[in-house]
Amino acid sequence: MRNEGDGRPLLLLDVDGPLNPYDVPPHKRPAGYSTHRMRPTGWENPWDKPLRVWLNHDHGASLLALPYELVWATTWKNEANEWIGPHLGLPTIPFVDWPSMTPQSDARLHWKTRALVAYADGRPFAWVDDELGPEDREWVQENHAPALLHWVDPRLGLVPEDFGALTQWAAGLGQVAA
């Protein structure tokens, strides 16, 4: 029997793009964001400049207010709990432990797509990412339902309209926002 969780749909959350709007000029931090310097795995060398991450501290409360069970769906894996979550006021949340972080045989399909459907194991989910394409939506629709694949502009990160879309989709599943 599969794990049904607490009955809420999953929110599969990417970091870079949705929470860390990276696709902007280096000195043009978006309004409402603060700069954090981090050394996650791969940035340990003391002569390497720390990784610059922009985070909006209001996103934590906004994410926790959504009617979802939060799951990190990021290459940060469990390190998102160490480096990202505390700045947003998030508790430790589950993460997808990717079997592979390389392109799959169908190069048009994002490498995360099949793994996220497997992780959801039949549970409704919303996937928030900046690298979603029509192939991903089509494949998920054919192989898992219900699911929302929600693209976030990596120049802006999550904006109020994104939170509204996520709330509306969950409400359509019969969920009641807290």
Can you offer a commentary on this structure?
The protein has six helices and six strands. With 178 residues, the protein is α/β, with parallel strands linked by helices. It starts with 9 loop residues before the first strand and ends in a 6-residue tail after the last helix. The chain has helices at 58-65, 79-83, 85-88, 113-120, 134-143, 160-172; strands at residues 10-13, 34-38, 51-55, 69-72, 125-129, 147-151. The longest helix is centred in the C-terminal third of the chain and has 13 residues, at 160-172. Helix content is 27%, strand content 16%. The radius of gyration is 16 Å and the shape is globular.
Overall mean confidence score, pLDDT: 89
Shape: globular
Strands, total number: 6
> Are there runs of 5+ residues with pLDDT below 50, and where?
none
Radius of gyration: 16 Å
- Supply the helix-strand structural class: alpha/beta
Main β sheet profile: 4 strands, parallel
| Assembly state | single chain
Give the helix tally: 6
The side-by-side strand order for the widest beta sheet comes to: 4-1-5-6
Distance between the termini: 28 Å
Portion of residues in beta strands equals: 15-25%
Q: Please bin the fraction of helical residues.
A: 25-40%
What is the string of SSEs from the N terminus onward? Answer: EEEHEHHHEHEH
Descriptors:
178 residues, alpha/beta, 6 helices, 27% helix, 16% strand, globular
Kindly summarize this structure in a few lines.
Helix content is 27%, strand content 16%. The chain is built from six helices and six strands; from the N terminus they run E-E-E-H-E-H-H-H-E-H-E-H. Strands 4-1-5-6 form a four-stranded parallel sheet, sandwiched between helices. It has a two-stranded antiparallel ribbon with strand order 2-3.
